[in-house]
């Protein structure tokens, strides 16, 4: 995660939309999760639209006041049950009141 934050500081993405894909991530510890959310916060403050792809619910592993993805998704479509569009995807608070959309599928 430290490398991720360094890369963001050294060379910011040129695209306005940034997708942080956690598909091949098998574990996110508490400190790593906080660093990842800090990176997303910085990107958002720099004017980027940030989304996560988190098929295994890594962001929800450490509750800190946000419900995170994965809860209430019995049908496994990556959205809370009853949600039918991307507008219904769960959101994660990345700090400073900024929220990023979390998709459970690519």
Largest sheet: 4 strands, mixed
What is the SS-derived class? Answer: alpha/beta
- Residues in helices, as a percent range: 10-25%
> Which residue ranges are poorly predicted, with pLDDT under 50 across at least 5 consecutive positions?
65-70
Number of helical stretches of at least 4 residues: 2
Computed CA radius of gyration, to the nearest angstrom: 13 Å
Number of strands: 4
Taking all residues together, what is the mean pLDDT? 79
- Taking the alpha carbons of the first and last residues, their distance comes to 21 Å
Strand ordering within the main sheet: 1-2-4-3
In N-to-C order, the SSE pattern is HEHEEE
Global shape? globular
Measured by DSSP, the beta-strand proportion falls in 15-25%
Give a concise summary.
The chain has helices at residues 2-10, 30-45; strands at 17-21, 49-53, 91-95, 98-103. It is of the alpha/beta class and 106 residues long. It starts with a helix and ends with a strand.
Describe the fold and architecture:
- With 106 residues, this protein is an alpha/beta fold.
- The chain contains 2 helices and 4 strands.
- Strand 1 (17-21), helix 2 and strand 2 (49-53) form a beta-alpha-beta unit.
- Helix 1 (2-10) runs parallel beside helix 2.
- Residues 65-70 have low confidence and may be disordered.
What labels describe this entry?
single chain; 4-stranded mixed β-sheet; 106 residues
């Amino acid at each position: 995660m430290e490398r991720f934050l360094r890369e963001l500081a050294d060379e910011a993405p040129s695209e306005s939309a940034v997708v942080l894909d956690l598909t091949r991530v098998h574990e996110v510890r508490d400190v790593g999760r906080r660093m990842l959310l800090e990176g997303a916060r910085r990107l958002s403050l720099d004017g980027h639209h940030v989304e996560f792809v988190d098929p295994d619910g890594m962001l929800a592993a450490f509750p800190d006041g946000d419900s995170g993805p994965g809860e209430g998704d019995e049908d496994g479509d990556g959205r809370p049950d009853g949600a039918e569009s991307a507008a219904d995807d769960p959101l994660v608070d990345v700090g400073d009141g900024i929220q990023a959309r979390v998709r459970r599928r690519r």
